[in-house]
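Continuing from the previous page of notes. For each protein in this section, the sequence appears first, followed by its structure tokens. Read the first protein now.
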Amino acid sequence: MAIAAFKRAIEADADFTGSYSNLALIYEDRVISRRRKLSCGLRSNAIRRTPPCGQTTARYSTSRKPGAGKARAGESVAADPTYASAHNNLGAVYGKLGQAANEIASYRKAASLDPGYADARHNLGLALLRQGP
């Protein structure tokens, strides 16, 4: 059902990065080898449509090697500290590294920069749930 919804979203607005990224994440979560190639193509499409300072962050937030992406993601945040998506994606890198406090702080910063940024609030909620009481 989510796959169909994101495909419709792409048809409705082919320039919205989030639809490509989220569809790629769904395919990755399914760990289906034939869809892995499609997932990479969708992620590349999202990266091409992301503003320049967010490209590196987006690429590394979904990377299988988040340690290598930490410095790059930090550079994206440094390039534009007011860009909420860069902080959100840096949070994802911290999450993959198991650095919960930094992950949560990054999501909180993203949400404070853009109070209507649903992805940052969603990611923050998930990180807080994982952290527990």
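Done with the first. The second protein uses the same format. Note its length before scrolling.
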Amino acid sequence: MVVFAILLLPLQKYTNMLFSIRSELASDFGFSLSTVAEKSYLNKLINDAASEIYRDNELYMSDREQIFDVGSENQIITLPSDVDKVLAARRYETRTQIKQQDMRPRYRSLGWAAPYLGYPYLQWRFKNRSCLKKEFLNVSPFTYTINQVVAGGFSIVITGKTETASRITETISFTGADITKVGSVPFVEYFSMQKNKTMSQDVIVTDSDGHEVAVLPNNELQVSYPYYQILDRYETFGPSNTLVEILYKLTLPVLVLDTDSFLDNIYDKVVYWKAASSYYAKKSGEDSLTRASAYDIKANSVLAAINESYMRNATSEITYAPTAGISVMSAVRAGAYTNF
């Protein structure tokens, strides 16, 4: 049995992953995987297709739930960078629903002069996304650290604002022997942090006081954290009521390694057909647009079948926007939902 397991692993390693999607595209459309440029192009084609599918649909295994301690007096919080968008939130102790809105409704004429009522804020306002997960007090350059050297080195481009420049960039260059670098520009505000390549480890960013202010994931080129206003003015929560349950959609990771998969291998054919559609949409020729349309229809058809099979849930109360080719909440609208 041990020998059988060892022999089976290599066969599973490249099944239903980036490797297999790329190989199928290369075989079907004449790309050479031995050519770095063509392999990179296929990887981009696949990631662009996955991103489009993920952006436009609610998908099986794309949601997570987690309990967060948001504190009793924090007016602004940041959630982890893998939170794409919050779908629902409630107080853990009281199970009270937390409503969400963006910044604009606060300034509607009817609510402009609404009095402060002195009760805990049960409405979160999405403020922005930032490359930092917390504020920094000292205007001094940040420190960038990795656990071990990266062969060939890499660079991080920082864009931000200083006291004398509205927008400026700085490049932090790591050689193949560096594990720590300190910036030279004293930014007062950070707009973005971007690496030039993916690698095997995260980059830890700390301020001059040694506090961790960001983590650049190894498999991403940049990072952003969602900011929410959860309290207003003089509102506070009791120390025993600081836990919040959050249902959120994951941020889609970039497929980098051959073994990387888009959520689950059930979506590999959807990604394949969508990538094929994108390829022919850019290709010249009389039948290119026809083929692009046919592949897109096929992608949507396969996706609809998957959603019908995996996303049907007669007890769900979350109302999603309609997805391409399928309504996620068809069971609810058909009357299958029962409120116990």
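What the second structure shows: The first helix runs from residue 2 to 13. The CA atoms of residues 69 and 243 lie 5 Å apart. We return to this in next week's lecture.
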